[in-house]
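[[Per-residue structure]]
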Amino acid sequence: MSAPLPDSIEATLDILAEGKYVADRSLATALFLALKLGRPLFLEGEAGVGKTEIAKVLSDTLGRRLIRLQCYEGLDVSSAVYEWNYSRQMIDIRISEAAGDRDRSQIESDIFSEQFLIKRPLLQALEPDESGLPPVLLIDELDRTDEPFEAFLLEVLSDFQVTIPEIGTITAEKPPIVIVTSNRTREIHDAIKRRCFYYWVDYPDAQRELEILSIKAPEAAAELSNQIVAFVQRLRSMDLFKLPGVAETIDWTNALVQLDKIDLDPETVNDTLGTLLKYQDDIEKIKGSEAANLLNQVKADLASRQ
């Protein structure tokens, strides 16, 4: 069931909360303005901080179809926008030649019609869903693509249209809700950013991360959640190859719940570091005495606050 777009920052916060997304007011403000003014929202930040989840929450709470374009190196127009169904075109040509019912110019006109067009995510996003409402378009991890694809994307983000040489320009009657994400493995061109509203999604502070765990991992004991968040917050201040994101905090918490843990201990931390850290060099750096020292500091700090 579809829902109207939020008419205030508070309503935007309510929509995010309904989708179990804990957001601060500045993020809700950027999202509200993007929705209100029909502009794409460019979300940049480290992996695992919740950028992609925003598009999913919007799709669920607003009742819109989610169309996701997962970016990767070498992504091109045929994978992102459209391509022609060559096998069906060849079959149609052979049938026509055998029947002799169409001349060459008619065949060419027919095979380059919409019925032979395979629509990829960007072209699909220009069409409304069954309810007649524009979908949510998620262009995920744009930094994985190359600059030629960014240049092509300018037309979509500027005018919400796609030009197909054989057919012409296809324009959305109503612009889709567009969320663009980047993990900042490289800089995105200014021309893309100028067409979007921008927001940097940072790691949450301890209080907000605890609130996230209360929603995403409610089975965890309060003391365990406090220890987990304090431990992760300390890890993020260290020189690691990949700092743990919110997604890893949630995964680690759920893993510890499955192990029936209500309190962190050094052995458990060592045994489960692979759910929190994703690079062996980071695991080797933390496990053992370093993990024990961190845990002692965490428990001493929590005890001093009580």
About this structure: The two ends are 46 Å apart (CA to CA). The chain has a mean pLDDT of 92. The chain is about 50% helix and 10% strand. The longest strand covers residues 177-182.
